[in-house]
Amino acid sequence: MGTTQLDTVPEPKYWHLRTVLSEALDSEFSVGEILPNERDLAARFGVARATLRQALEQLELEGRLQRRRGVGTTVAPPRMGVAVGSEQHTWPGAAGDAWRPADCTRAVPPPAVARVLETGPGEQVHVVRRSRVTHGQPVAAELLYVPASSVPDLSGIDTPSGTARARAVLRELQRLELEGEDRAVELGSARADEAKELDRLPGAPVLVVTTRFFAGGGTAAVSVATYRADTCRLTFGDSGGVEIHHDPERRAS
User: Fold this and answer.
1) pLDDT tens-digit series, residues 86-110
2) In whole angstroms, what is the distance from residue 141 CA to residue 191 CA?
3) What residue ranges in the chain does DSSP mark as E strands?
4) Is the pLDDT score of 4 beyond 80?
5) 189 - beta bridge partners?
6) Cβ neighbours of residue 158 under 8 Å, at least 6 residues apart?
7) For 101, what's the count of Cα atoms within 13 Å in the CB-facing half-sphere?
8) Distance (Å, rounded) from C-alpha 215 to C-alpha 72?
9) β-sheet with 180-189: strand ranges across
10) Are the C-beta atoms of 69 and 194 separated by less than 8 Å?
11) For 56-84, what is each residue's pLDDT tens digit?
């Protein structure tokens, strides 16, 4: 991998550098290997460090690189297929659910969630926090918002918070007849709390999957799940035939 003259290339410098770096990752580096520091890489390619950072950020977005706390930038393994849902709708916490309940508190939901749940101003809901681990690696974190009207029998449960409370909310949800659900997927950036839970750096690319669960003619719960974009390939449906790739040179199939 030699120095490349980028000034004569008509496309943006960082994009051409991204292509050169991508080829180098395939030919010179192995999975998990740490890249040289930014100063050395910038000098090697004769580019400004700002241009180099743009190229590295693009490769991280595509899942080719990972920035790890206390380690540096490493070559990422291939993305793992993570099933997001099946063709048969089920409540969170149902048999076979891969999520692990961690905690449950009462809080006022974000305005966007409150509008979907149609809760009143300042009205608190149950917030169940769950995590998902694949091959020993944290890949997703979820906040499940459940209004009190969806789980009215929780008043008789003494545990105010914690894992037991989370399981109780999930158990009570399953008493309702699930009428359907819908999902939306968007690309985002990890907040500080999400980054810590997912072992990422703040601002790292994530995939945010928002799911609405319908029962009783309205929205009974809302899930906001944050997946690591560098390691996850989301699949939908029992066949796993729909895949979301954040690589501009690959198309969703």
Assistant:
1) 556 789 998 888 899 999 999 999 9
2) 12
3) 65-68, 72-75, 80-85, 100-107, 125-134, 137-146, 180-189, 205-215, 218-228, 232-236, 242-244
4) no
5) 205
6) none
7) 20
8) 46
9) 100-107, 125-134, 137-146, 218-228, 205-215, 180-189
10) no
11) 988 887 778 887 777 788 888 776 666 66
Quote the DSSP letter at residue 167.
Answer: H
What is the pLDDT confidence band of residue 242, given thresholds at 50, 70 and 90? Answer: very low
Rg (the chain; Cα; Å): 21
- Report the alpha-carbon distance of residue 143 to residue 164 in Å, rounded: 16
Residue 243, phi then psi, degrees to nearest 5? -125, 140
Q: How many CB atoms sit inside 10 A of residue 219's CB?
A: 21
* Alpha-carbon gap, residue 32 to 37, rounded angstroms: 15
CA torsion 153-166-215-233 (nearest 10°) is -170
d(CA 88, CA 68): 37
Both tokens of 63, joined, read 């899942």
pLDDT tens per residue, range 11-32: 788 888 988 898 888 888 888 8
Q: Please say whether the beta carbons of 221 and 125 come within 8 A.
A: no
End-to-end, the C-alpha distance of the chain in Å comes to 33
Tell me which residue has tokens 């694949």: 134
Token digits of residue 205: 């690319």
Asked if 239 and 56 touch (Cβ cutoff 8 Å), the reply is no
